[in-house]
């Protein structure tokens, strides 16, 4: 199953949003998952791993929101941002989206 969301008539794959977030100078790695929502259909949750020497702040969150807003529609802005020390990986070294979904559903940061 491929995760994609559709604000109005556009479809953006989670990889597009992850690659965009990684373009920010403070972001080392990013993972985005969609969580079902009764009203909006799906809410995006972004997990951000920062580069050494950078600290999570409201200003950084605003910069990331602005970056997404300039490139895609406002509907693509993640509903929640979580800073993580380490991204969960599968045995093959890929990002474990299932673990990110679990974290998002549990509200774990």
From TrEMBL:
Give the residue range of the signal peptide: none
As one GO molecular function, the record gives:
acetate-CoA ligase activity
A GO CC term attached to the entry: cytosol
* Residues covered by the AMP-binding enzyme C-terminal domain: 16-94
Q: One biological process GO term for this chain? A: acetyl-CoA biosynthetic process
Q: So which domain of life are we looking at?
A: Bacteria
Pfam families from the xrefs?
AMP-binding_C
Q: Which SUPFAM superfamilies match?
A: Acetyl-CoA synthetase-like
Protein name listed in UniProt: AMP-binding enzyme C-terminal domain-containing protein
Where does this protein come from, organism-wise? Desulfuribacillus alkaliarsenatis
